[in-house]
Amino acid sequence: MRLLLSLLLCSSAFAQDNATLGEHARRYLIDLLKLDTTNPPGNETRVADYLKQVANANGIACELLGPDPARLNFIARIPAIIRSGQRPLLLLAHSDVVPADRSQWTVPPFSAELRGDHLYGRGAQDDKSLLAAELAVMVELKRRGAALKRDVILLSEADEESGSTGINWLTQHAYAKIDAEFALNEGGASLETHSGQRIFQIQTSEKIPTRVVLAAKGTASHGSLPRPDNPVVHLAKAIARLADSDQPVKLNTTTLRYFTEMAKLPDSDWLKPLLAKLEDPNSAISAANQIRDKDPELNAMLRTSLSPTMLQAGMKINVIPNTATAQIDVRRLPNETREEIEMRFRKIVNDPAVEVTPATGQDMPATEPSSLTTALYRAMEQVFSLAAQKAVVVPYMSRGATDGSFLRHKGMAVYGVPIFVREGGESRAHGNDERISRTNFANGTDLLLKIVLAAAVDNDVRP
Ligand SMILES: [Zn+2]
């Protein structure tokens, strides 16, 4: 009986019915939150299989592909009805989630428990809410027989949270299946200011993880005799020099526009006098330091940042070790190269006993910010402007990295779409008790549909 009931419950998510967009989306989100795709190991095929069942039940062509049967990617496509020659719109959302420590959560992380108006679960913000909304929009386009002037593709890729092997494999082996003029992705952020203005931050660019290792070398010897080449001391000084250094300030088209627009808002008009100083190389660093003292997030958009995070040295208190190493989490501006960063760090460290080398792991590509003049960017500006009174729409560079940079590198315009508002000003992505309110989720799904309709449907043809 229980089995039968769960089969019935399950199959109701797949069938075509008269449920609204919001009801479909919520059902998908609950089902997706219950699928454990903790990476590692991922097991993203669980999500791919689920998406396939929904697509099949709604007559949407799809396929599962990838090199690892347990970690398949999902691609679905609704072809254009109108022959316009316009290239596809890609909807992108990864299927894996970061681990959740059950002991730190007040609800089981894969229960999709509803408390008050909030749905709880690992992935409720990152990234299953976006995936569920995109799936619901695909089903809605199909159900309406929307007069698409370009194909709409849904891609849910595996392994975004760890090695980006999903998107890498796809760009190398199946790019034609996901090639598009532009894409909507995670990475955008929507906030409410103290004075109640809603800011829609469309992510057009992102900083690039550029992990660096510092390794100091000296002579192993007895702790009773201090030595000038003690690697622990050299390493400590090197870390302090780096942490205290002022990294140069560099604006790009996205961040310049962002700061210009933000300075016009009552809540951040203190930026106005600093803006001109930021653009002057003689005063840029002192202006950025003033910004840093007030708002570290804004400072992180102005320059490459570094955080020492891991240390390793010694095994016994009375033995001076011959090596000491530190790992530094560096997030570089996309208009700087890894080589520039490493050269600059060596200069700052200024110690031949300390080597500055790249950490192992793959490098993400550096790219120009995505264009602010595409039909998709314009559609977002239009939809978001109408979504709230005194809405502000700005392009934005995120501190965090996404799979979007691999597609930008292929020439695709990729936008982190800020459909969900940051509730109470806090983000629980990767945190404990990750959740999203049903109202926020429903409103965001509506916004996504409007954007996709504005960018992909021929306005002269009513379905
Ligand atoms: Zn994510």
Structure in words:
The protein is of the alpha+beta class and 463 residues long. The protein has two domains: 2-188 and 198-205 and 372-456, Zn peptidases (Aminopeptidase, 3-Layer(aba) Sandwich), CATH 3.40.630; 208-358, Alpha-Beta Plaits, CATH 3.30.70. It has 15 helices and 19 strands. The chain has helices spanning 2-11, 21-34, 45-57, 128-144, 165-173, 175-178, 231-244, 253-262, 272-279, 284-294, 296-300, 338-349, 375-387, 404-409, 438-456; strands at residues 61-65, 73-78, 89-92, 114-115, 118-120, 152-156, 182-185, 189-192, 198-206, 208-209, 212-217, 221-222, 305-313, 319-320, 323-332, 354-358, 392-398, 413-416, 435-437. A six-stranded mixed β-sheet has the order 1-2-6-3-7-18. Helix 2 crosses helix 15 (438-456) and helix 9 runs antiparallel to helix 10. The radius of gyration is 24 Å and the shape is globular. Zinc ion binds next to loops. Residues 94, 126-127, 160, 186 line the site of zinc ion.
List keywords for this structure.
five-stranded antiparallel beta sheet; Aminopeptidase; single chain; 2 domains; Alpha-Beta Plaits; 20% strand; 463 residues; disordered N terminus; 15 helices; binds zinc ion; alpha+beta
What's the structural blueprint in terms of helices and strands?
Elements: H1 2-11, H2 21-34, H3 45-57, E1 61-65, E2 73-78, E3 89-92, E4 114-115, E5 118-120, H4 128-144, E6 152-156, H5 165-173, H6 175-178, E7 182-185, E8 189-192, E9 198-206, E10 208-209, E11 212-217, E12 221-222, H7 231-244, H8 253-262, H9 272-279, H10 284-294, H11 296-300, E13 305-313, E14 319-320, E15 323-332, H12 338-349, E16 354-358, H13 375-387, E17 392-398, H14 404-409, E18 413-416, E19 435-437, H15 438-456
The structure holds zinc ion (ZN).
Zinc ion binds next to loops.
